[in-house]
Write a structure and sequence with these properties.
The complex is a heterodimer. Chain A has 14 helices and 14 strands. Chain A is α/β, with parallel strands linked by helices. A five-stranded antiparallel β-sheet of chain B has the order 1-2-4-5-3, with helices on both faces. A five-stranded antiparallel β-sheet of chain B has the order 6-7-9-10-8, sandwiched between helices. Chain B is 47% helix and 10% strand. Classes of the chains: A alpha/beta, B alpha+beta.
Chain lengths: 419, 625
């Protein structure tokens, strides 16, 4: 009797539960990228990049299948709708499969919409279960998201999704763009300190001519770029470079490649990157240093006369990767010169970057977190209103550098040749 | 009728078109039979037949009495009285004994139908012969040999030997039974007394096992197990001489449980050889072997072996109780016996370790478990067993812990894979596509794009064909074995994918699953993994990961509630006990001080704290200083 009851319960459970939520893989269509742009009358232009599995197989070299090699592994559809949800339903009106948003890698926001405010877009992104907090947030620099998505032709990767994943995974290699997850983007909007930030993506429009976004710091030889000015000639015109700064849900400024590094140094996420500096002894030559953080920056804050005072202590470690002049910087006496040069450059850059952040009133590095410790209750901190006082904050930056290694050479031997 | 051509043509066409039942010899049909059913045996004319048998016995006694009296009269008249005095006296004594047996009450009991087995051995050789003939359906049955001899005693004594052809050693019967009886007994001038039998067994028969039998039940079990039974005229008992000697497979290498290290000997079909193998590995006077016969129609001996000073007395008593209280007609295998004595449980999991390796049995006996061997089965059972025992192999303790533990974890991992993988795949691709990396999700989708069936059906189809191949591989005659490999590889590996009936991912999945289930050392445990895979697949198809988790939960609960001969199945995980460093991972051999705690052995200590005593001493050669 008990067995019979159990059997009946099990059958009832099997027949009534589940099943509805299941989809065969050939019933769904995976959306890889979503682009959101401002459209007239407060509408949104929503661009979807859908992957075409059959083509993926063809690309992978499988024989037999319907895939023709060289065919696009994905297709792009743009829909104008008042909201993301409506856009998804309209998408379903065209595509014969259920759009599955759980594999969206990146949401690209057009600059116009970003400056208008993204609150209305971010809300549903976090609430609807198919969207994931681990999506990346990009802002189209000086262009629309639709254009970025339509122009994007990954050179090496066959799958656009792979391109996004690869780009974000290798962000730490240079520090020219941050890794900005949707979750990280959303949290500062409601938290008491910090500001949202996003990766800037854009099209290289300079045609191979370098158009630096800002002048070089004294002693530095690296140019600072935004996407439009990067001197690349062929390949994928879509680049990731720089950081979009937000205040609240509105975009207020852009950090260049170099400034993004400084921002990452402040958050302690700067992993490594090359720095090219002027040779301290032979100003015509350059020295390449492979830099990384020696430790997380020590940041302490106090409040004096109603102004926050923030002390930042950065420690960098470097490895010499090129000395074009051949000066013996490997020796202790000389490498101190290098260390001082690097420290000075980074300090100037840091100060400049923080000054810019203060100017636009955005605090992506979450310096306000350190000021919080000066207050006993959250109420007092809220009354202090750090956000409005951030522009007037005093920031003291101290940078020390240690050259740890000299690469695989101990000394530069002069190159022999006819004198 | 006119036999014209028209009629001929008509008949010809008719012959072709009209159906005529083919003429064939009448066929044999296995019917219910007139004398089938037990009721007709017990009722009806049975009373009449037993009365006939009674009368026959009485008349045989009468004839014997008459011949004796004739002999006595002849002796008296011819004057040979003194020489035949002893013979006649003995004859008279025998007659007297037989007369006592023929009292009416006993008679009606003894001669009732089908009671031959329970009858005591008669003093009349004639009666005994008749009973043996009735029991063994002689002379139709050609296996049983009755050999009539006369012992050269004075007076000459008639005797009958009964033995089974094929089960006995003919040379030994000739030399060890017949020769002493016929030659050595000759010349003894002794009267037939009551102690004749015991004197024969003490003084004449050289066989190693000789014993006295009282009933035909014992006689039958002796003959059926290859012994020779000797009936003597005038004695109410019989002698059993061990003459076992049937053909059997010799001791061989293990075929099922092969190992790289460890002993290379396996059980065979002979019970006493098997017990001997164990005893040769566990040379202890504590090792007790009890023989319990099972089966009403064929008495199969089951040996219950245990270390008396270690094994829990209750455990031994319970196992003996269960084995001896089996009422069945025939038992042919240890797996058969296991089902008769195990606890009933819902999950088809093995409750006793079945092994063909005497070394494994010896190890378990030394830990306090009990071994059971069934005559004719080359597999011994070890009880009680817990879940983890089935993932151990015989050589685990011959390897270093690191190697053995790696293998053990691999086996458990394989079990997990083989039960869960198809369900997990279905749950993920049906319900939780976000849990799969994008690249993989797209690869799965791409592979499935051209396949016309739902994914669960693909898996089901492939699993079933894999099971078909596996079963066919077992059943196919060895000569045709390679066919299976070719067909399996081509159908599963190539054609199904090329025809886009299944996606290549499914083929990989099923292959891994099949491979993983083969890693489990115990075949029956692997079988459970195979079965539960289908159950988990079902709940995963309908309820996704929730279903899979529920299925595993139900399985865990069921496993935890299970017992094997009083031992909780999941011990020492649930309930938590001291493991003795041999559960999933095994420890260093010198650190295993205690026997498994849950067995509650009489002597829980295996070895002292310090078992590497040499470490406490100085190395050799340094003690002179």
């Amino acid at each position: 009797m008990i067995r019979l009851t159990a059997l009946v319960c099990l059958l009832a459970a099997l027949l009534t539960l589940g099943c509805n939520g299941s989809h065969e893989t050939d019933e769904v269509s995976f959306v890889i990228t979503i682009g959101v742009d401002a459209a007239p009358d407060g509408q949104l232009n929503v661009t979807y990049r859908l992957s075409k599995p059959a083509m993926v197989r063809g690309e992978a070299g499988g024989e037999g299948g319907g895939g023709k090699s060289g065919a696009e592994p994905s297709t792009i559809i743009t829909i104008t709708a008042p909201s993301l949800a409506v856009a998804r339903d309209l998408l379903n009106a065209q595509v014969a499969r259920v759009p599955n948003l759980s594999h969206v890698k990146v949401i690209v926001i057009g600059e116009e919409l970003a400056r208008r405010g993204v609150g209305e877009v971010v809300g549903p992104l976090l609430r609807f279960r198919e969207f994931r907090g681990s999506m990346f947030v990009h802002v189209a620099d000086n262009t629309t998201a639709e254009k970025v998505i339509r122009t994007n032709r990954p050179v090496i990767e066959s799958l656009p999704a792979r391109w996004v994943e690869g780009m974000m995974a290798s962000a730490g290699e240079t520090g020219y763009y941050p890794r900005a997850f949707l979750h990280d983007f959303y949290m500062p909007m409601k938290a008491g300190s910090g500001s949202p930030y996003a990766v800037m993506t854009g099209l290289s429009s300079s045609g191979g001519e370098a158009r630096p976004a800002a002048g070089q710091t004294a002693g530095e030889k690296t140019d600072e770029f935004l996407s439009g000015g990067v001197p690349v000639r062929s390949g994928n015109p879509v680049l990731l470079i720089g950081t979009a700064l937000f205040r609240g849900d509105k975009m207020v400024g852009k950090l260049t490649s170099e400034e993004t590094r400084m921002f990452l140094i402040l958050t302690g996420e700067f992993r490594r990157g090359f720095l090219t500096i002027q040779d301290p002894l032979q100003p015509a030559s350059v020295v390449d240093i492979h830099l990384r953080l020696g430790r997380k920056p020590k940041i302490a804050a106090t409040v004096a006369d109603g102004r926050p005072v923030i002390d930042i202590d950065v420690m960098l470690e470097g490895e010499i990767s090129a000395i074009s002049s051949g000066v013996n910087y490997e020796a202790r006496a000389y490498n101190q010169l290098l260390e001082e040069q690097i420290s000075a450059i980074i300090r100037q850059d840091l100060e400049k970057t923080i000054r810019y952040m203060q100017q636009v009133g955005s605090d992506p590095a979450n310096l306000g977190k350190y000021v919080r410790t000066q207050f006993r209750t959250y109420g007092e901190y809220r009354d202090f209103d750090f956000e409005s006082r951030f522009p007037s904050a005093v920031v003291n930056v101290k940078v020390t550098t240690q050259i740890r290694r000299t690469g695989l050479m101990r000394i530069t031997s002069p190159i022999r040749g006819p004198e | 009728m006119v036999d014209n051509s028209l009629i001929k043509i008509f008949n010809f066409v008719k012959r072709i078109l009209v159906f005529r039942p083919p003429s064939e010899p009448s066929r044999f049909v296995l019917g219910e039979g007139a004398d089938d059913g037990r009721e007709s045996e017990t009722t009806g004319d049975d009373g009449l037949w037993s009365a006939v048998r009674e009368l026959e016995a009485l008349s045989r006694f009468g004839r014997r009495l008459e011949t004796t009296m004739d002999k006595a009269r002849a002796a008296l008249t011819t004057g040979e009285w003194p020489s035949q005095d002893e013979t006649l006296r003995a004859e008279c004594a025998a007659l007297e004994k037989q007369w006592r047996e023929l009292r009416p009450l006993l008679l009606s009991y003894d001669f009732s139908a089908d009671n031959l087995t329970e009858r005591p051995i008669s003093t009349s050789l004639e009666e005994n012969r008749r009973i043996i003939e009735a029991l063994y359906k002689l002379p139709t049955n050609k296996d049983v040999v009755m050999r009539h001899i006369t012992l050269g005693t004075a007076p000459p004594l008639r005797a009958t030997l009964v033995y089974m052809e094929g089960l006995t050693d003919g040379k030994f019967i000739t030399l060890g039974v017949l020769q002493p009886l016929m030659l050595l007994a000759g010349g003894r001038r002794e009267p037939l007394t009551g102690e004749m039998l015991s004197r024969i067994s003490e003084e004449i028969l050289p066989g190693s096992h000789v014993k006295m039998l009282g009933t035909f039940r014992e006689v039958q079990s002796g003959i059926n197990s290859g012994d020779t039974v000797i009936f003597l005229d005038g004695a109410g008992e019989a002698l059993e001489v061990e003459t076992k000697g049937w053909e059997h497979r010799g001791v061989d290498r293990p075929l099922i449980e092969q190992s790289i290290r460890g002993s290379q000997v396996a059980f065979s079909e002979n019970l006493r050889v098997n017990t001997g193998l164990i005893r040769s590995m566990l040379r202890s006077s504590d090792l007790v072997t009890e023989l319990i016969p099972v089966g009403t129609r064929s008495r199969v001996s089951c040996a219950v072996m245990y270390l008396n000073s270690v094994a829990n007395a209750d455990l031994v008593a319970e196992i003996k109780r269960r084995v001896s209280k089996i009422n069945t007609d025939y038992l042919n295998d240890s797996g058969h016996l296991e089902q008769f004595i195990e606890d009933r449980f819902i999950l088809p999991l093995p409750q006793a370790l079945s092994t063909e390796r005497p070394d494994r049995v010896a190890v378990h006996l030394s830990e306090g478990r009990v071994g059971i061997i069934v005559e004719g089965s080359p597999f011994a059972m070890v009880v009680p067993a817990n879940f983890f025992t089935f993932f151990h192999s015989g050589e685990d303790f011959s390897l270093k812990p690191a190697a053995a533990n790696f293998l053990r974890f691999l086996r458990l991992f394989g079990t997990l894979i083989s039960t869960v993988l198809p369900g997990l795949y279905i749950a993920l691709t049906y319900f939780h596509q976000e849990a799969v990396p994008t690249g993989l999700a797209l690869a799965i989708a791409a592979a499935r794009e051209e396949v016309p069936f739902p994914a669960w059906f693909e898996i089901f189809m492939m699993e079933v064909s894999f099971e078909l191949i596996r079963e066919a591989g077992v059943r196919i005659p060895g000569i045709l074995g390679s066919t299976i490999g070719i067909v399996g590889a081509i159908i599963l590996g190539q054609a199904a994918v090329a025809a886009q009936i299944v996606s290549p991912i499914i083929v990989i999945l099923v292959a891994i699953t099949g491979l993983a289930s083969s890693i489990i050392p115990e075949f029956r445990m692997a079988f459970f993994a195979r079965l539960s895979r289908f159950g988990l697949l079902l709940v995963s198809v309908t309820m996704g990961l929730v279903g899979l988790a529920s299925g595993l939960l139900v399985m865990t609960v069921a496993l935890c509630s299970m017992k094997s001969f009083g031992l909780p199945y999941m011990v020492p995980i649930a309930p938590r006990t001291v493991s003795g460093l041999d559960v999933v991972a095994r420890g260093e051999v010198w650190r295993r001080e205690r026997r498994p705690d849950p067995l509650n052995t009489r002597d829980p200590s295996r070895q002292p704290e310090v078992s590497r005593e040499w470490e406490q001493e100085l190395p050799a050669g340094e003690d002179e200083k």
